[in-house]
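Please review this one.

:::
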Amino acid sequence: MNKFINLFSFFFALFLSNIAFGVNSDLKNIKIDAELPAGNIIVDSIEDGVVKIQQDLRDSKQWFYWAFRVRGAQGRTITFDFTNKKGGGPVGVRGPVVSTDGGLTFSYPLDGKSKSDSFTYSFGQDDKDVLFYECYPYVRSDWDRFIKKHEKYLGSHIALETLCRSRKLADVPAARFGCINKTPKFRFLITARHHASETMGSFVLEGAAETFLGDDALGEWLRENAELMVVPFVDYDGAQAGDQGKGRRPHDHNRDYLQFIYPETKAITQWIATHANGSLHTFLDIHCPWIRAWENEKVYSPLKDPKILPDVKIEKRFSELLEKIQSGSMKYRAKNDIPFGVGWNSGKNHAQGWPAATWVGKTVKDLKIVRTFEIPFANADGTVVKPENCREFGRDIMKVVYLIASEEQ
């Protein structure tokens, strides 16, 4: 009898243990992979309710981008612990960007609940396929979706082009917006994704381009007088593959305006030389900074060497106007700009080669504005950074460019 009671007690205790721990400890049926747009992950181990992972640096020295898919984890609570904790860890200030509908929508469900090197996620009973990204993704299909949304303007106010063939022999997209069927009075160029993982720049570029299609006085003036040239993915292959892009070996795309080892950078200079006759009014290059702390959670510009600026007074006016007229929720403050020669923003940062803005400032004719913007990944002075307010910021930028250009007429 005692033997029976002891056996019963053993199995009852095992039953209780499974209730308490089994859901989280048995992870043998879950699948974690990088088979999603711009996927990037290395899985070190899966056990006892904890998944040890790290970002795949590939040919970059050190950066923080990752993106992965989890299948078969319904009803489980799992901690994702990053083993590469350099720089404080690769999880942003609002935690992962998550999609439970196959990438149709994204949100920050763990905002305020994540650590810089880990997060814990409770999967619902219907969460068969969940996507986790370090930041909002933006790949070629997003660009194609954007163009599809505005396809009625193709031929009249949008001209699609192929910038070049990438190293992997893919067609690299470029486009012109606004005054495309006659010689415009002004030409502007905006580039994004010199560093593949800095995705928020592509949303800013979208907002700027949409300004040229607006059914308002601003849109009408732009379509009549100005052409916007855009390159949404300078590091095209890297953006599609989910590479870091920053600090590539031997150098990244934004240090390639002397050696020109990448097809995209050379093609940009040739596009300016041939299509724009070597002349631009405005050049804007959109980036994202580190993922947390200090200036990295603010919208700002690393100001350029005054020696390459066409007009320091106009640059200052640009900052003043943007701060004054901006209407989006993500605010720019000129006081947050980093002067040239302060901190990392110096000539030493260009030891591997010229960035795009330096090449433009030294080479292109008729310039009035040469500006780089850094757009935070998740937090901008307390504002949640999302695609919507990045697009708003792009529209605000173009309002300022319009005001400065129209004064010259």
User: Anything to note?
Assistant: Residues 1-25 have pLDDT under 50 and may be disordered. The first helix runs from residue 2 to 25. The first strand starts at residue 31 and ends at 33. The two ends are 102 Å apart (CA to CA).
